[in-house]
């Protein structure tokens, strides 16, 4: 008896440029077809695998254009990783990161870390294809950063495999496809690149923007390499981060994190601008006023650059600011909840702290409305004057 073999359809092949795929970027920086119609994700909707493959190919074609712009307009160059790969070696498993030409000499550096499955230079495929190519990619962020004097480092934590002579974020269907050294996971890539490049930088003012899982990978590295970073980080912005501080119980690190990191999260429009402390994040969370998937990127970036601007001239030596009780600053979300204590202030607080810790799980931390600062020892937190509930 013979069993009927179902033949798999061959993988669809698309062009590798926007022109070949019959798309272009219009004056509003939106993706449109040759008839001027906006891109839609409903292409051959009954065939989801085709739809996904087309979307990935289109994203790669867009990013070729964007990276060329970054190179021409922002003095950005490609850097091979692992760092031992020579410039003329195109056959060894490898990927690229993007760096500004002044990365090692500039006063301030901005590091960008995307979510999982995003390719180099992209924040969100959805925003890139459906909304605006500048906002969906990192182009608008890099342009603003360069105009404000930042050096730029763009990481590539998702290109794990070397397929047909190039890095790939997609799990390969072929067998025996080599993984790229130092790129086995986002955590490994972020740790490898930062621990290699940061010691070579003159800058003592490092700033980070990380999206979703990128926030977790960054937190992992900052904790692991805390001695390297604790005196040279100016600010950390986490957009819809999936990180959790619970796995990093060191109180000194948690205090440093709470003083330097701010999360930018989805919320109702009526909540826009409100700030609350969330225990699992270990930091203050700024509500962006949008509930649409990935739109916190677009809505959060203006306040993120304001947040960084407030801190651009700060002495980032941890010991100089770790015990300061800063006044509320609307442009700096970290000043609502000030700190996590790194030592016990008073033994008499012990029973009170245990009781308040239980309450934390079911309600937001409420702060004093008057001018006097109320100190609460809830997981070693201090709440600054004027915080919104």
Word description of this protein:
The protein is built from 11 helices and 15 strands. By secondary structure, it is of the alpha/beta class. The chain has a domain at 75-334: Rossmann fold. The longest helix has 27 residues, at 48-74. It starts with 22 loop residues before the first strand and ends in a 6-residue tail after the last strand. Mean pLDDT is 85; it is low at 338-354 and 360-389.
Which helices and strands appear, and what pairs or packs with what?
Layout (H helix, E strand, L loop, with lengths): L22 E3 L5 E3 L14 H27 L1 E6 L13 E6 L7 E6 L11 H6 L2 H4 L2 H9 L2 E5 L6 E3 L2 E3 L17 H12 L7 E7 L1 H12 L1 H4 L3 E7 L11 H10 E5 L9 E4 L4 E5 L7 H17 L6 H4 L15 E4 L9 H11 L20 E3 L6
Compact description:
The chain has helices at 48-74, 125-130, 133-136, 139-147, 186-197, 213-224, 226-229, 251-260, 295-311, 318-321, 350-360; strands at residues 23-25, 31-33, 76-81, 95-100, 108-113, 150-154, 161-163, 166-168, 205-211, 233-239, 261-265, 275-278, 283-287, 337-340, 381-383. The longest helix is centred in the first third of the chain and has 27 residues, at 48-74. The strands form 4 sheets. A 9-stranded mixed beta sheet has the order 3-4-6-5-9-10-11-13-12. Strands 1-2 form a two-stranded antiparallel sheet. A two-stranded antiparallel ribbon has the order 7-8.
Strand order of the largest sheet: 3-4-6-5-9-10-11-13-12
CATH topology of the domain at 75-334: Rossmann fold
Could you state the order of secondary-structure elements as H and E? EEHEEEHHHEEEHEHHEHEEEHHEHE
Shape: globular
Query: How far is it from the N-terminal to the C-terminal residue, by CA?
Result: 72 Å
Largest sheet: 9 strands, mixed
């Amino acid at each position: 008896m013979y069993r009927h073999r179902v033949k798999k359809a061959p993988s669809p092949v698309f062009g590798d440029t926007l022109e070949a795929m019959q798309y272009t970027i219009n004056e509003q920086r939106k993706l449109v077809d040759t008839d001027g119609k906006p891109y839609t994700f409903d292409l051959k909707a009954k065939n989801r695998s085709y739809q996904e493959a087309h979307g990935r190919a289109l994203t790669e074609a867009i990013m070729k254009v964007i990276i060329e712009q970054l190179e021409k307009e922002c003095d950005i160059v490609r850097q091979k990783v692992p760092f031992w790969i020579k410039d003329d070696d195109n056959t060894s498993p490898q990927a690229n990161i993007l760096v500004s030409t002044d990365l090692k000499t500039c006063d301030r550096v901005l590091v960008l870390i995307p979510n999982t499955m995003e390719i180099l230079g992209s924040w969100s495929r959805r925003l890139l294809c459906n909304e605006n190519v500048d906002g969906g990619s990192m182009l608008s962020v890099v342009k603003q950063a360069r105009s404000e004097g930042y050096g730029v480092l763009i990481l590539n934590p998702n290109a794990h495999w070397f397929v047909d002579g190039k890095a790939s974020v997609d799990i390969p269907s072929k067998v025996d496809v080599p993984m790229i050294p130092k790129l086995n996971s986002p955590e490994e890539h972020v740790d490898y690149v930062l621990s290699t490049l940061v010691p070579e930088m003159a800058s003592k003012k490092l700033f980070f923007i990380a999206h979703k899982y990128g926030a977790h990978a960054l937190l992992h590295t900052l904790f692991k390499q805390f001695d390297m970073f604790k005196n040279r980080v100016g600010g950390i912005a986490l957009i819809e981060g999936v990180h959790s501080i619970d796995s990093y119980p060191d109180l000194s690190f948690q205090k440093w994190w709470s003083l330097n990191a701010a999360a930018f999260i989805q919320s109702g429009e009526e909540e826009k601008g409100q700030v609350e402390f969330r225990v699992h994040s270990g930091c203050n969370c700024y509500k962006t006023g949008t509930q649409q998937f990935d739109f916190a990127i677009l809505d959060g970036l203006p306040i993120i650059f304001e947040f960084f601007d407030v801190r651009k001239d700060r002495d980032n030596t941890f010991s100089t600011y770790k015990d300061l009780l800063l006044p509320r600053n609307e442009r700096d979300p970290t000043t609502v909840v000030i700190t996590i204590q790194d030592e016990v202030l008073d033994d008499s607080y012990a029973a009170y702290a245990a009781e308040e810790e239980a309450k934390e799980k079911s309600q937001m931390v409420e702060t004093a409305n008057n001018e006097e600062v109320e100190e609460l020892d809830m997981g070693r937190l201090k709440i600054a004057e004027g915080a919104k509930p």
